[in-house]
């Protein structure tokens, strides 16, 4: 079911949103229907949840509430956007998904990983990506990129950018653990590469992994 669902993961500023836009464009040029979406967000209710979760003023959110908000947003997003898109044969590219919850709320916050996996199972109804692109980058570099972007952006998002460097190192370590656990699904890319280098590595992988009619795959 999730065979044409691809997720993009990695720390703040690792280049997910930059990459996903280019991948979507490249696939659309080939005549493939692409649904580009993100978490938190991806649908109107998910967007409201996103505003709560990423608002830098909401520093009082406790870890378990944060976890449940992510799960609630995901449940809505999967049913409203992801499943219908997959059912009509679209390729779905999702900017962050279940692995973010394991990396941030599990390894970053220290919440129980088994519990998080169960919650992800409830939230997704078992819809998992066939391949996940993990953009790996030292947090010092990623935060530098993200902060320069936050300063120029007008939005209020940025709650995670304010976390300590130690937190971000735990998140990165968490992603490594996830990649080691599921090496066939998780495709790690060195995000220190140029945007073009990251894009090329992704396209090579995704074109081989997608299930689309042959005439549109080349
Ligand atoms: N490979 C790259 N090399 C150098 N800079 C990059 C690269 N990819 C993206 N950037 C720049 O880094 C900044 C952050 O990139 P981007 O917004 O795509 O990251 P992100 O992973 O989506 O971050 P977040 O998790 O905060 O949403 C942007 O200014 C972008 O132009
Ligand atoms: Mg982004």
From TrEMBL:
Molecular function GO labels: ATP binding; dTMP kinase activity
GO cellular-component term (any): cytosol
Superkingdom: Bacteria
Catalytic activity reported: dTMP + ATP = dTDP + ADP
One record GO biological process: dUDP biosynthetic process
Enzyme's top EC category: transferase
Enzyme nomenclature, EC number: 2.7.4.9
Classification via CDD domains: TMPK (cd01672)
Record family assignment: Belongs to the thymidylate kinase family.
Protein task: Phosphorylation of dTMP to form dTDP in both de novo and salvage pathways of dTTP synthesis.
Name recorded for this polypeptide: Thymidylate kinase
Organism: Geoalkalibacter subterraneus
